[in-house]
Amino acid sequence: MKIAAIVGSTRQNSYNLKLAKHIQKRYEDRFTLQILEIGHLPFYNQDIEHDPSSEVTDFIQNVADADAVLWVTPEYNGTISGALKNAIDWLSRIDQVMIGKPSWMVGASMGALGTVKAQAHLRDILFAPGLSSPVLPGNEVLVGAVHEKMDEQGNLIDEGTVAFIDGAVDNVLPWLEKQSAVHS
Ligand SMILES: Cc1cc2nc3c(=O)[nH]c(=O)nc-3n(C[C@H](O)[C@H](O)[C@H](O)COP(=O)(O)O)c2cc1C
């Protein structure tokens, strides 16, 4: 199983990027997680959508080639980041590679509620007609106060959070296999 990870924070020391790397490493014998860059994508503009730059076409192709997408979202002012929304807008147009492609999501924030609003919005966005992505029911992975749960090297050291993500992964894999069978 090949999963594309799209991280909504573009900063170098992003906790969400570190969370994506934790998932990539911890479950490497169960699925391949390819972390995709979104910081270099131009702003979506309908004038250029039929002839976008190679950054855009490569990004879209990588998503098209994946069996599923893992969204790793920060929360900015109660919603997803502008960078993430921009990437999603690109994916929603022309080839519409998200249609039928299953999604699951995790998110980390420094606030107590751990991206709960951003994830609710993201679920809603993924149901837009140009995306129409089946989203893993339940299994919300909301990592609040993330700065207290990672060490200086960016390792996730909170045992409860690590165990909770183990459980979510146990649920996500059979669900993704069923979704792939339905949509293939
Ligand atoms: C513009 C901006 C808005 C933010 N809004 C929220 C918010 O609504 N809820 C929250 O829990 N944290 C919020 N934060 C704090 C983030 O949780 C924190 O910066 C986090 O580290 C961002 O994720 P990252 O480390 O992956 O970049 C905000 C941060 C920024 C820069």
Please give a structural write-up.
This protein has 184 residues and is α/β, with parallel strands linked by helices. It has one domain: 3-Layer(aba) Sandwich (Rossmann fold), CATH 3.40.50. 38% of the residues lie in helices and 14% in strands. It has a five-stranded parallel beta sheet, with helices on both faces. The longest helix has 25 residues, at 159-183. Flavin mononucleotide is lined by residues 9, 11, 14-16, 74-78, 109-111. Flavin mononucleotide binds next to helix 1. Residues 1-147 form the NADPH-dependent FMN reductase-like domain. Belongs to the azoreductase type 2 family. This is NAD(P)H-dependent oxidoreductase. It holds the Pfam family FMN_red. GO terms for molecular function: FMN binding; oxidoreductase activity.
Give the count of helical stretches.
Answer: 5
**Oligomeric status:** single chain
Count of folded domains:
1
Bound molecules: flavin mononucleotide
What is the averaged pLDDT score? 96
Q: Total number of β-strand segments?
A: 5
Family: Belongs to the azoreductase type 2 family.
Domain NADPH-dependent FMN reductase-like: 1-147
InterPro entries: Flavoprotein-like_sf (IPR029039), FMN_Rdtase-like_dom (IPR005025), NAD(P)H-dep_reductase (IPR050712)
Pfam families: FMN_red
